[in-house]
């Protein structure tokens, strides 16, 4: 390719409830976008095919397609199962070759990653992480998930990491709460601070808890414990917090204050030229992070071929 | 350089009690090695200079020198302070330009990293991590430190991470113990499972506690909690445990059993083709990891110039 930067790419955000498809330039203009509900693989993938046929007729062919998929999906390039949906309660999607099907539907080579890693790429390159190559993106909602970028590369290891299951100390005032994680009960952050944990502890959803409710002090504490563990493990220059629960903007100053309290003087931020206000930050791209990140993935994939 | 692989390199392991210098080939033969006590910068660095003058006269010039240094040392290449010792109780060494001084002493360009990252490089390339590019090396002794390799690159972020301060849930049977971390008391692994924590909890050192002592069940539990947090954050293919406390070989099967218990079915190792016995493993290089890793650092540094 003579000029991959200004070439056209495809993006698919394959979510559990809807698929979003787009055609555009990485970090630039979107020429076409559409979304449709996630039903059966046959039906949904037919919509993807229709979108790419029409969008490419109108705007020209895409060089490659980037996919951010609901999980569990095999995302380690080179693995035999790469691009396939693993065991899932969405039985109709189990074993579906998401990557192969979408590549065929778009008539272009494709690359795939988890929805959260795609959002990480979007936020790191065009949102709250711009200018940094060590960034963590955390989404706090029904579950707690995260993507880790170190040295400008997504960290996979043998799986894609699931930071929501980081074990953290329980707060003394929270002793009675049993936690909601199916695996780790009250030992991990997802069990203590996900949307369902808030619901279970307080008997109502995050959206109904006013800012002065004690729920938020505890919530900030647990998110801060997650941040501390990320800081001492990867020392990211940005921890970007997004997802439904983080719509509570008052949480950010509280999380930062709790990070400072928990670190208790450890990590001399000033010596590193780091301001905590710039370190723990809200996501900037909101619902657009997936499509923007998927275009980045498509670009990287094409550039590496 | 026409053949960096068979060129000669220098290694300096700058420890708090002794310096080890070597001249050799990465992953291959050591042609010269010497060690001397860490005293004043002037005295100790004069010994380094003497070593390299003599060793290079005898065996030929080195292409570059790799240094693994006691901390705190600025290790982020490109930072203004790169290679300098930061604030430290070893007052005579504070502010010393370890990198510049050793480069001058050896008459060759040099690169520097922490002692634990150097041991990580050694173990990853020639020890317990061979063949893997996602590896964590943890040393459990007076403190708990770690180096993280992701996508075959050492993870720094804004600092070099200090995994010993990962916060973990406290074991119910350990409620009375106050912990020994100066920053985090009983909230982090260093406060709960370092050598001094063992000493404080049981009134005697690790070397005096027999394998059947309850100390080891608890120790395995906390080290497993650290492993779990590393697994869900980076999913390393090897977690290499070294350092004085890990000389207790009976700890390894216990740590693995505790990892399995804590994960409670989460992370389907079999689906990833992972055996826990191959995942949590002892260090293989012992005291040689530093020199072997420093030669690797020197080689990488020369190759990138």
Which secondary structure elements does this structure contain, and how are they paired or packed?
Two copies of one chain form a homodimer.
Chain A: E1 9-14, E2 18-24, E3 30-37, H1 41-59, E4 65-69, H2 98-106, E5 110-114, H3 115-126, E6 135-140, E7 144-150, E8 153-154, H4 189-193, H5 195-202, H6 214-234, E9 238-242, H7 251-263, H8 276-279, E10 280-282, H9 289-304
Parallel strand pairs in A: 1-4, 4-5, 6-9, 9-10
Antiparallel strand pairs in A: 1-2, 2-3, 6-7, 7-8
Tell me what you see in this structure:
Chain A has helices at residues 41-59, 98-106, 115-126, 189-193, 195-202, 214-234, 251-263, 276-279, 289-304; strands at residues 9-14, 18-24, 30-37, 65-69, 110-114, 135-140, 144-150, 153-154, 238-242, 280-282. In chain A, helix 3 packs across helix 9. Chain A is an alpha/beta fold and 305 residues long. Chains A and B meet through helix 6 of A and helix 6 of B.
Provide the descriptors you would attach to this structure in a database record:
homodimer; 305 residues; alpha/beta; five-stranded mixed beta sheet; 10 strands; 35% helix
Major sheet of chain A: order of its strands? 3-2-1-4-5
Percent of residues in helices of chain A: 25-40%
Biggest β-sheet strands, sense, barrel of chain A? 5 strands, mixed
* Estimated share of beta-strand residues of chain A: 15-25%
Which class do the helix and strand fractions of chain A yield?
A: alpha/beta
Question: What multimeric state do the chains show?
Answer: homodimer
């Amino acid at each position: 390719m003579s000029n991959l930067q200004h070439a056209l790419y495809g993006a698919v955000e394959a979510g559990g409830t809807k698929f979003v498809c787009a055609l555009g330039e990485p970090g630039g203009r979107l020429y076409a976008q559409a979304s449709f509900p996630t039903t059966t693989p046959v039906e949904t993938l037919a919509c993807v095919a229709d979108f790419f046929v029409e969008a490419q007729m109108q705007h020209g062919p895409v060089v490659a397609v980037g996919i951010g998929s609901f999980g569990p999906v095999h995302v380690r390039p080179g693995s035999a199962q790469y691009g396939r949906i693993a065991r899932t309660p969405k039985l109709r999607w189990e074993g579906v070759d998401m990557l192969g099907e979408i590549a065929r539907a778009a008539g272009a080579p494709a690359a795939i990653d988890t929805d959260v890693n795609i959002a990480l790429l979007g936020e790191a390159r065009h949102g709250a992480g711009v200018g940094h190559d060590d960034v963590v993106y955390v989404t706090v909602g029904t579950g707690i998930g995260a993507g880790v970028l170190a040295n400008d590369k997504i960290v996979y290891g043998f799986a894609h990491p699931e930071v929501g299951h980081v074990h953290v100390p329980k707060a003394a005032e929270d002793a009675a709460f049993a936690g909601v994680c199916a695996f780790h009960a009250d030992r991990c952050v997802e069990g203590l601070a996900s949307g369902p944990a808030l619901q279970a502890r307080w008997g109502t959803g995050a959206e109904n808890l006013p800012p002065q409710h004690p729920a938020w002090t505890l919530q900030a504490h647990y998110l801060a414990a997650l941040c501390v563990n990320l800081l001492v493990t990867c020392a990211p220059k940005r921890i970007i917090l997004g997802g439904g629960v983080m719509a509570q903007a008052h949480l950010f100053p509280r999380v930062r204050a709790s990070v400072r309290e928990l670190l208790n003087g450890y990590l001399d931020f000033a010596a590193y030229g780091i301001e905590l206000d710039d370190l723990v930050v809200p996501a900037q791209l909101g619902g657009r992070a997936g499509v923007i990140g998927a275009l980045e993935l498509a670009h990287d994939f094409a550039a590496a071929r």
